[in-house]
Give the backbone structure.
Amino acid sequence: MAFALTEEQVMIQTMARDFAREVLLPTAAERDCTHEFPRENLLQMGELGFIGMMVPEQYGGAGADTVSYALALSEIAYGCASTAVVVSVHNSICCEAVMRFGSAEQKQHWLPRMTTGECIGAFALTEPNAGSDPSSQRTTAVQDGDDWVINGTKQFITTGQNAGVVIVTAVNDKSKRHRGISAFLVPQGTPGMVVARLEEKLGLKASDTAQLVFEDCRVPKANILGKPGEGFKVAMTCLDGGRIGIAAQSVGVATACLDEAMEFTKTREQFGRAISDFQGIRWKMADMAVQIEAARLLCLNAASLKDLGKRYSTEASMAKLFASEMVQQVAGQAIQMHGGYGFSTEYRAERHYRDARVFTIYEGTSEIQRTVISNNLLGPPQVR
Ligand code: COS
């Protein structure tokens, strides 16, 4: 790959690749069946520096840059997409939110815990009736003495059941619309925060997706993240980084699809030769490789802009849009090349196809990415 990586970035990528292929990959199919949360693997990744990867070393993190993070996350997704989404939400959204918007005390308290793998973060923005339009959320936060009291329902929350801390957004002043939304740190076990249901899903089965209900859930005043009314900004800022994470995840799963399709077609013989010798397969394989490389470069481009401290919202959405749509095609082609075996759980292709399906939906649908990109190009649409 021509994108110039530093020695350190290559080293981190290699470490992640070794871990993903030796530890995550051999057990991913089992987790897909048992739906078991990858707790042990997260602890091991904490030791290796992949949890809280971009958290500064003073708080126990690896202090890595976003390019290294994207490279590592692709490798993790290659091994196990369920584990990758847990790592992605934790690193790109939750740790980032505390790093960027946390008070000195919040950073001191939460970040060291969030780098070991013991305390994984969840981000509760979406509601049953507020997905693409989070400013229409209805969860409320009312100040009462020294506490905030949260009431409402959050939907499709990754790691909602297993998180050590949930960052929850809620409306504290309805008249101000998105400027009346705040974000709160709610530790696991806080009375009034209840896992009301767990989703049965098409894929990513080892990552729990929960509905969280807040019933007079009290958190101290000190648990507000940023200033009152800054919650929407917290969400939008961190989602930009989250979208780099989903692009990286897409690249990882697509690379796994390509490798498995190559391995299968080289050994599968029909009409007296390996099917990888037929031009129909070879050209498809070439197209898959080109699409993956393009997605990888878009992803690393957005990551490096973030590292340079430049604006990267448009590029993060471009990377997320392209990479998540790309993996739909690549995973479908990988199944096609496996023929009937691709439809069977005997091969990994069908799991990749199921796992990847949500990539064009979560952390902003493809339609929302197009909205972000076109708004940044043209300005918001004018209602005449
Ligand atoms: N970074 C920081 N702030 C941002 C931002 C970004 N990338 N994008 C928007 N904002 C700010 C704007 O600056 C504006 O703030 P001010 O009014 O204080 O200036 C505010 O957010 C509202 O912006 P806008 O009017 O563009 O917001 P909209 O309600 O129209 O929504 C979209 C914009 C659709 C892009 C946004 O709602 C979105 O991303 N939706 C998808 C949500 C999503 O991804 N959900 C999945 C959650 S999985 S955790």
About this structure: The chain has a mean pLDDT of 97. The pocket of coenzyme a persulfide is lined by residues 123, 125-126, 132-135, 178-179, 232-233, 236-237, 239-240, 313, 362-364, 368, 371-372 (CB under 6 Å). Strands lie at 121-124, 140-144, 147-158, 165-171, 181-187, 193-198, 209-220, 224-225, 269-270, 273-274.
